[in-house]
Amino acid sequence: MWLAPPLLVLVAHQLLFPPAGGFARVRYEVGQAVQDEIRAPFEFSAPRPAADVDGDRREVAQRVEPVFEHDLAAERRTGRALSEFRDFASTIAVDASGTLAERVATLQDEYPGLDAGTIRAVLDAGDLSQIFDALEPALRSLFADGIVDVLPRGTYQQICIVEGVPADEGPEAADSP
Predict the structure, then answer these.
(1) Theoretical Cys-Cys bridge with 75: which of 38, 51, 131, 143, CB 3.0 to 4.6 Å?
(2) Is 29 domain-assigned?
């Protein structure tokens, strides 16, 4: 008899507040539009749009330290550029038709990265061959080991650094036995 009062409360509760009937079964057909705010009873991974993924990749690439590339042709390119500069500067240096400021401006037009003070010092030196003769061996020893250059951020897929290959042999020589 002591079970009668709690049982009576339980029955009264069921009559006043009937159960909801369980989970509502919903079926979705292919091509059917669904509500925006469907909540799943469990967690699952959802694919993200490609634009969001690409944006995240660019953002991460900006935070990653730069990657370096071993440039085996740098010595040849720099030697060729130095030779062209030597010829052009020698021609400008012996040109007596203009003032020093005009000759400096001419060289700066051709080589905008050079400082006017540096150009003035080169042209004032008198014998340019001494400067270039001293400069070439220093550059050759610098480039003999190869130059490491910074790649733009996020524009690379795979980097391979080749060591111990002389610059005049090129990267294809490293692959041969």
Answers:
(1) 143
(2) no
